[in-house]
Amino acid sequence: MFEPPTASTDQQPGELGLVQWHDFVCREEFVFDSGQKLPGITIRYETYGELNADKSNAILICHALSGDHHCAGVHSFHDRKPGWWNNIIGPGKPVDTNKFFVICSNCLGGCQGSTGPGSINPETNLPYGRDFPWLSIADMVRAQHLLVTKHLGISCLYAAIGGSMGGMQVLQWGISYPHAVARLLPMATTARQNAQAIAFNEVGRNAITRDPDWNNGNYGRGKGPQTGLAIARMMAHITYLSDKGLEEKFGRGKVTAGSNRSPLDAEFEIESYLRYQGQSFINRFDANTYIYFTKALDRFDLFGPSGRLEDALSAVSARTLVIGFTSDWLFPPPQNRAIVQALLRCKKHATYAEIDMDLGHDSFLVEAPELYTLVRNFLSV
Amino acid sequence: MNPPVNKHNKRERDLQILGQWIENGASVLDLGCGRGVLLDFLHQQRGIYGVGVDIDPAKVAVCTRKGLNVWQGDADAFLRGMPDQFYDWVVISRTLQDLTQPAAVINAALRVGKQLAVGFVNYGYWRNRLATALTGAKLRNEVFPQSWEDTQPHNPVTVAMFEDFCQRHNIQILRKVYLRGDWHARLSLQPICAQATHCTCSRGADSYFRSKSN
After folding, report:
1. Do A116 and A133 meet the contact criterion of CB atoms below 8 Å apart?
2. Helix, strand, or coil here: A226?
3. What are the backbone angles phi and psi of residue A10, rounded to the nearest 5°?
4. pLDDT at site B212
5. Would you call B82 and A351 a contact, using CB atoms and an 8 Å cutoff?
6. Closest-CA residue to B179 (of B193, B166, B196)
7. Domain A198-293: which topology?
8. What is the pTM of this model?
9. B90-118 residue pLDDT tens
């Protein structure tokens, strides 16, 4: 049960309380980077706070692989948890909804309301499945740009903010639409994934496609390769944490109760935690989206054919703050740092800050005063 | 007794001197930029394009509030990633004592910057010598306030040592200012009378190209 909306005070941030999602139905043809087309797309999104008269206070939040448009507040007072970034977004919080109009949309290709592989193909009346066009980070950003400019009528974002895959979208915003965004705040991200990150994604995809229920991506709603998807999630979840973080949270702690356990039952707390993560993921996520999103992550490469990050980043005109986390071994600090150094080699306005936290890649989602201060400071000028 | 010197007027003097040297619109890299006081000043007074490097996350956060460009990390790692002669100026102001490999950083700074401005407090200031000789203990005064057990590793560099270093590394000192004990009047006397110094260094053209071809 979640508290109803509360206003912020000088000392204490408030809560957004009930929020609602909306659908932007775009009936124009959408052309993907791959050249494939859809006759139209739907983008599900939420907004918090008030857009000011000159539409200059809009902040776009970009979600990560398993995230969605619901980043703050609750849909019902019976929700077990608020939106995924509720700790940073809200009245009086670092992304202050008293000052800013915050927008967050489910990425194109997603499975939480935006057009994706699970949507119905009007030509066949069946889900697109693997007929859905190949998707890139730039495609997701192009869809967000339509939402922001065409639907919401905002010509320039005050800022775009996101971690991990969201950070890639933020960078892509600065490159694709340099005049439509004034500040970029990517964190725990990379300009391209190293072999290790691609390797983990490939194991996840294999878990899905080798599940007997995969059926080449054709399956009905609520069906499909659920075991494979749960295993993909369990493994990926480990890469979002860290040795130290896991040790502090679980250590070798054991699940109590039941003495006559089979060796296949969850014995350690970490096992039961991962099983829970896997199970809850299959209730909300689609295996095809998982494959399309991880492929978009793997193919994202701002170094481009020349191998020079500057070629892509020279287009950026926004001020940029990149935040890396010391214990992030998925997109480690050097990969975050490299983005800023390349921006500075282009004589851009950019800052690199690093936060010393033990919680790995997912550190950006956790309450941390250092992160809050950086976000507040960056957004204040 | 030392003439009264406070943190504020020391900083003012540093800013004045560097503000006179650095031209309008220059690109400036400040190694050990701290809270960005110099960069902020140069940005407002001289319209520079500035970048700071600092290892301290709290100071980086303060720079972010001022809208400055900062890179959190080691100076040498940052310099390695930058092309030759990229900035008009590199500034090492009151950071020299805290570097682990001063020679490597100075040489890299001379590669990355067209000119290097170095400012540091003179450990060889006569009052410092006298105090050390008399007490036989680690120097402690307004400029070096901490006791030995509270300090980071520290290079007690003197004006004479620095000038000798420049000579050995074929670094030309183009301009220098010695500041008296009150941190105010400039001196043309022996560096032993200086409590602090600022100088502009550049690699002799000859040596710069030689070092590139190596």
Report:
1. no
2. helix
3. -60, -35
4. 26
5. no
6. B196
7. Rna Polymerase Sigma Factor; Chain: A (1.10.1740)
8. 0.93
9. 999 888 888 889 999 999 999 999 999 99
Question: Which residues on adjacent β-strands are paired with residue A228?
Answer: none
Domain A21-194+300-380 has CATH 3.40.50.1820: yes
Contacts of A125 (CB under 8 A, 6+ apart): none
Helix A137-145 / helix A287-299 crossing angle, nearest 10 deg? 100
Comparing CB atoms, the residue among A319, A349, A355 nearest residue B57 is A355
Asked if A279 reaches chain B (Cβ–Cβ under 8 Å), the answer is no
One-letter identity of residue A41: I
Token representation of residue A287: 């295996």
Closest residue in chain B to residue A320, using alpha carbons only: B69
Domain boundaries, chain A: 21-194+300-380, 198-293
CB atoms A370 and B57 under 8 Å = yes
| Length of chain A as a residue count | 381
Contacts of A321 in chain B (CB under 8 A): 64
Domain residue spans in chain B? 7-213
Question: Does the beta-carbon distance from A351 to B65 stay under 8 Å?
Answer: no
The domain defined by B7-213 folds into Rossmann fold (3.40.50)
Q: Which two tokens stand for residue B89?
A: 């100026």
Whether residue A232 contacts residue A65, with contact meaning beta carbons closer than 8 Å, is answered with: no
Q: Is the pLDDT of residue B5 over 60?
A: no
Is the pLDDT assigned to residue B209 strictly greater than 60?
Answer: no
Q: Could you tell me if A163 and A189 are in contact, meaning their C-beta atoms sit under 8 angstroms apart?
A: yes
